[in-house]
Amino acid sequence: MKKVLVIHGPNLNLLGEREPGIYGTDSFDNINNEIMQNAKKRGFDCEIFQSNHEGAIIDKLHEARKVFDGIVINAGAYTHYSYAIRDAISAIKIPVVEVHLSDIHSREGFRSQSVIKDVCIAQISGYGKKSYFLGLDELKAVFEKGDQFD
Ligand code: DQA
Q1: Region 2-145: CATH code
Q2: Which residues are part of the catalytic machinery?
Q3: What is the full per-residue pLDDT of the chain (150 aa) written as tens digits?
Q4: What long-range pairs does 12-19 form, CB within 8 A, spacing at least 24?
Q5: Domain extents for the chain?
Q6: Is 76's C-beta closer than 6 angstroms to any atom of ligand 1?
């Protein structure tokens, strides 16, 4: 069974309360339950991790390289400027999919840049919580193709 890790970055723990007009009214716990169900449907063993701290996300990416087969990450605002998270993704040899609830390309200018995009296998943005499920689909497609990463 493939093991996948879903990482939520800063402020995503407040989903449901945080700017519901942009991020929706589903609570963080509900979204995580749905992620777990969707992962199970795809035959994955799934773990979910959230942190508001850049270093903790980097540590988790490092640990994940020996434990998981793939990662879905919503790096929150770190997406737009964290070269350290980019380097951590680049350093590990497992496929990583970048996801966002909102459409980062139709909001403030600074959000349309992702410094992690080029080291991820895909960027999925703007489908609400479904972005995470589509991220799981990307991993499934990669596992089925048997692609090698380095
Ligand atoms: C986000 C988009 C980011 O610009 C923002 O900083 C977030 C959430 C999203 O899921 O739409 O925290 O990653």
Answers
A1: 3.40.50.9100
A2: 23, 100
A3: 999 999 999 999 999 999 999 999 999 999 999 999 999 999 999 999 999 999 999 999 999 999 999 999 999 999 999 999 999 999 999 999 999 999 999 999 999 999 999 999 999 999 999 999 999 999 999 999 986 665
A4: 12/50, 12/74, 12/76, 13/50, 13/52, 15/101
A5: 2-145
A6: yes
